[in-house]
Amino acid sequence: MDSIKVGLLGFGTIGTGVIRVLQKNADLLQQRLGKKLELAKVVDLDITTDRGVQLEAGLLSTDVEDIISNPDVDIAIELIGGYEPAKSFILKAIANGKHIVTANKALMALHGQEILVAAEENGVEVMFEAAVGGGIPVISAIKENLCANDFSNVLGILNGTCNYILTEMTENGSDFAPVLKDAQELGYAEADPTFDIEGVDTAHKIALLAALCFGTKVDFDKVYTEGITNVAAIDIQFATQMGYKIKLLAIGKNLGDQIEVRVHPTMIPDSYQLSEVDGVFNAVRLSGDFLGPALLYGSGAGMDATASAVMGDVMAIGRDMISGAKRRTPIMGYCSDQIDELPIKPMSDIISRYYLRFTVVDAPGVLAQISGILGKYDISIQSMIQPERHAADAVPIVIMTHEAKEDNINKALAEIDQLKIVQEPTRLIRVETNLG
Asked: Is 87 a catalytic residue?
């Protein structure tokens, strides 16, 4: 074996970054691997647009078979994204004996088990470090360096678009809509930002992290997902006043016989490290029985950071190929026959503290009516903010609860929102202080 040949499926932003790494650091990669990494083929539907990198004649193709059925290609890098045709391409490449590197978190979150089985049957590797956290090496940390730990929870700020928007709203007192527009103009948000701002991108990532940490299959359809579109500037102001920051938090908890996997705006104390993760940066907080808490922080997206992660996986597979190692590390961190099927705890059953903002008429007895209904459902008040009366007809009342059951909160709010004194639907944000 004189060289290890790589085929690249997808010549977009990340694919361009991968080629840049291969070209700029060719000598460094060879020194660290012991063999040359050779780009054998680049496949994309568009092979005419200038990406700012020079390729040798004959490398570009529009025919995917030039990679997935090419006997000279050792490692196929999938950077197409989405479910199809990416899944079909990967499965065929696996059937043809290709090792796989992918950055496709959506595909791995929904179809990872099918890909895992196919890889085992064909004796190949599948690695996906770039699928979570961009350049943060969290997946390899869980599978390798920290694998002696029993993880109790994994928390993450996993979407740079949402984190940028919430940071700008916090620092400048801005509303959501204009900050989103600015993020799009700066290239931090897509023209259609739905997957980001509605929390779907983050949910894909926490589903993968929970599966890796807890050794279980995760049914993505049961991951509670709530985005940031309803977070208002006034909520951020009250959070700051009470010593909290609002983040789109991905939460995974191992409860023994079941797990929690959820994504939603969350208030966390401003004294916690996670609250200091601002702008487009990402962070993952792991809690292991011997490790204790550890925070991994870095660039969560972008050409260079993601390409770095992709090439790290390519190098890891290349080293295994050279040494003769075969499937040295299980794809999902656990031996496949040891992967459990723990159920996801229903959101109605979770226990949390809650921030509640009521918009009510400015009249005597309002608080008594609200607190009476909360008490009826075993919800106790920890603190309250009631701004001084103004001329306006409607005023906010903010209540921070002690721990309560989500189902009780929902029932109480349904009853409270029917009161004539309530002018708008109550705003709820969960509060996370018990990080383990």
From this structure: no
